[in-house]
# Entry
Amino acid sequence: MRCAEDEEKKGVIVVEPPFKKEHQLDNAFDSLPALQGFLHTLLPPHPLLPLSSAGLQDYLVEDLCPTKLNSLAYHLWLCSAPSHTNIPPLHDHAIHKRDIILTEDPGLHLVWEPGRIFLKPLPSYMLSHAFWTHHLLTGDIDGDRKLVTQAALGLLRSYHFCIRYRSDFRVAQTAHLIPPDTSWEQWCDFSTSFQCIQNDQVAPRYHYGKLQLSRLHWLVRIYRRELNYYYIDGGYGDSFAIYCGPLLFVFGTLSVLLSAMQVGMAVEQVQNRDWTTFWAVCRWFSVWSLMFCALVCLYLVVSFVIKSSDELAWAARAQFRARLRSKT
# Structure
């Protein structure tokens, strides 16, 4: 197994594709040996987009680059372990009752929320050795070309961790993440060198693995002054449904508190009558109800603070260790 080497010379990036030509999974471009041969060839996923089109680079940026996540990369340690290996194998999602949802948005790849995780299928052109050679790994050093190459390498490397076992491979084919006519042996040959891809070769977003959508919402609210990272809810009902549970809890707690205080005040009216035992029971029951509600609220607050502090401390330590490793 041989890892690719990067070399810069006179403004041209010269690197090898992350897989050997004999291990490619798409040979649609093999009959076109030179860049000029692509003039009348169309990009397979988009038959209206010629490979020689000036809009091809813009399309690759849109199809591969997680622009918003790259801008948040410095803060992503707040919502995920600062490690690119934090990617569970595909079979693990069924264990955690998560559905695999296909998305063509690179910004949603490996983003999850309770019940589902979003994954971007591998574009067919990324499985071609010739496409990598002529469109991703050669040309002038400019911002877009570098971003596209880094994003493509990061996407490929993420699949090294998504598909670790034969069961993951079957899940990937069932979910249409990889070509259905690929065998397990072909996939192993194709992906064997993905582990050689280093963090300095991929987009900043791919320094991290899976990301929780709810935490991304908070990141963009703080650092980008946006309401949500990605608006997924279908309508007003879905948007307001998330507040029903907390509001019901607050109203229920207030109702218990007010009822307990009302009982405590009402029993004072029978204090001097013959119902002294009943008065004592009602009075202490109202007091214990107030104390119980206070303890429950205190427990929830303390549990949230401890859990959040523990996760932040762990993430900070992991981020510190990652920076130390990057300096050595």
